[in-house]
């Protein structure tokens, strides 16, 4: 079995390359994705190898990118759109919600929209305004869209291929602060044998508290679990991976064993994914809970300037504080 150590960015690049090789209907399009290779170099080298008819540099018009991709998808192509930064997706929001999400339903199932919208998201890189956002709740709330997010190179490589192969429109969130982190990637497993796209997974087993996270916060929670182990507490970290549809099977099983649950995400807490997850955990696991489901999130403010970003982002200490509070009931 061929295994390589890759960064998340390189794993995504390799997955995109494989998708382009496997299906001539796959097209990559976005701002600076071709000659430059993307601002994070995720599409580096793809235009050179596959040509400018399949890796397309578009105008700086997100609504135009998504609208064009809808037409291509209806005609049988599989467009992969890159939104250069999370904060730039809002001009395309109308197209995504009004067209991408509704076309299959509107056509009574006659039309499929097999397209992927890649969005680098989250903070941690000290970027300027509009370059660090956590917009996942907007899309997860929208019926007709599927939303997934990878947390490591292995998932990045396989999940991007699975998303492209899907006949449904998928918002693919990439944690930009993790692009340069390395991990092992199995390259020669058939796509059909990869871990299911819309399934959560236990990242670190534990017995005392269930910690649910996704995307950039998974590593933060694993680090918190390592620190907690020094004090004799075993945290079980579950990587949700799919935000719509939510897969909480592993979470329910975990909470029934641990009796405590903490949900962690970067986005603001008000009406965030954590609210829905906490409600479902409470409904399904009420008699197993030893304490309320707690949330560790970003604050209900516009995303802050880079110089105070670390005050906004959930970190190891805030996760461990929530764990302590869970034991205080």
How would you describe the shape? globular
- Uncertain runs with pLDDT below 50, 5 residues or more? none
Largest sheet: 7 strands, mixed
DSSP, total strands: 14
Structural class: alpha/beta
Radius of gyration: 20 Å
How many angstroms separate the termini? 48 Å
Strand line-up of the largest beta sheet:
3-2-4-5-7-6-12
What order do the helices and strands follow? EHEHEHEHHEHEHEEEEHEEHEHEHH
Helical content (DSSP H or I, runs of 4+): 25-40%
What's the layout of helices and strands?
Layout: E1 3-7, H1 8-22, E2 26-30, H2 46-50, E3 55-57, H3 62-74, E4 78-82, H4 93-100, H5 103-106, E5 116-121, H6 136-140, E6 146-149, H7 153-165, E7 170-175, E8 182-186, E9 201-204, E10 209-213, H8 217-229, E11 235-239, E12 242-244, H9 249-258, E13 261-268, H10 273-285, E14 294-298, H11 309-312, H12 316-326
Parallel strand pairs: 2-3, 2-4, 4-5, 5-7, 6-7, 10-11, 10-13, 13-14
Antiparallel strand pairs: 1-8, 6-12, 9-11
Helix pairs in contact: 1-7, 3-4, 8-12
Brief descriptors of the model:
alpha/beta, 7-stranded mixed beta sheet, 329 residues, single chain
